[in-house]
Amino acid sequence: MSSVLTPAVCFFTLGVIAARIGSDLRISATAGQVLALVLCAAIGVKGGIALREEGLGLLLGLTLAAGIVLAHVAGAAAYALGRRVLRLGVADAAALAAHYGSVSVATFAVADAWLRSRGADPEGFMPAVLAIMEAPAILLAFWLAARSGDAGDTSGGLRHALSSGPIVLLIGALAVAALADGEAVASLEPLFVDAFPGLLVLFLLAQGLVVGREAGDLRAIGRRAVVFALTWPLAAGTVGVLVGTAIGLTTGGATLLGVLAASGSYVAAPAAVQLGLPTARLERILPLSLAVTFPFNVLVGVPVLFALAGVVGGTA
């Protein structure tokens, strides 16, 4: 199994360590938000350039459909596990479904960079799959809560799920890069393509600092919930890899679909849940996604799913 110790992952670990030892190293929330937006724009531009070169086709349609189905299945499974295994109330279980049925842009970025560094380039349209998998589980979570009469006014959360800033930027950047003049788009490559590894390093350093601070809250959440957050990535990721291989994705593409299925949102989902499920205890759900599942995927999940995709696809 190939090592995942890239500079980006090492800087993420540095951020965690710095936070845990009480270092005064800080990246402001505003700076972190700017890095996240630039990262989304970069992913969109890279995906749009690839779409321009590859064009549209049956495989793209199949992968988009698979992404939507996976998001719904993951959300429903997380809700059921939340209710039956973790013994959560309806609102909390719905919040869990929203987080774990949705996706993580940062995990996608790490996995995409790691795969390309090993020559296992995923299909260029995968950023479009990332974008389309963001909202379905959040909408499903609101429906599950509303069906049980345990949801407030979900209209604000629905609007946020459909108009989340990072996802709007990602889709917009993808469309611009795919449709605009090719030479003009090429002028953006120094920032959004060439500088991508540096942007990812800074973003993951910021995330490491956040994770290091959030890790202390896990003691109050419970062992069973932490076990869920650790086992979910491999179970859901395996399903994603198998689906990706079945529809004809390359080893890199199948791995990335598995990573999307395995990841948990900690940007769009928390904001939407806060608006649409005000009775959910977000402080008990968000740390699972951010401080357990995200680092697990970055350090362990990506290489494990890549190895699985190689075995299933016959390229190992």
Helices and strands, with pairings:
Blueprint: H1 7-20, H2 29-54, H3 58-84, H4 90-101, H5 105-117, H6 126-132, H7 136-147, H8 155-163, H9 165-179, H10 182-186, H11 189-194, H12 196-214, H13 223-246, H14 251-262, H15 268-276, H16 282-313
Helix pairs in contact: 1-12, 2-9, 2-12, 3-4, 3-6, 3-7, 3-13, 4-7, 4-16, 5-12, 5-14, 5-16, 8-15, 12-16, 13-14, 13-16, 14-16
Identify the notable features of this structure and list them briefly.
globular, 316 residues, mainly alpha, single chain
Can you tell me the overall shape?
globular
Alpha-beta classification:
mainly alpha
> What is the H-and-E element order?
HHHHHHHHHHHHHHHH
Total of DSSP H or I helical runs spanning 4+ residues: 16
- What's the β-strand tally? 0
Distance between the termini: 10 Å
| Content of β-strand | under 5%
Mean pLDDT: 86
Uncertain segments are none
> Helix fraction?
over 70%
The biggest sheet, with number of strands, parallel, antiparallel or mixed sense and barrel status, is: none
Rg computed from alpha carbons, rounded to a whole number of angstroms: 18 Å
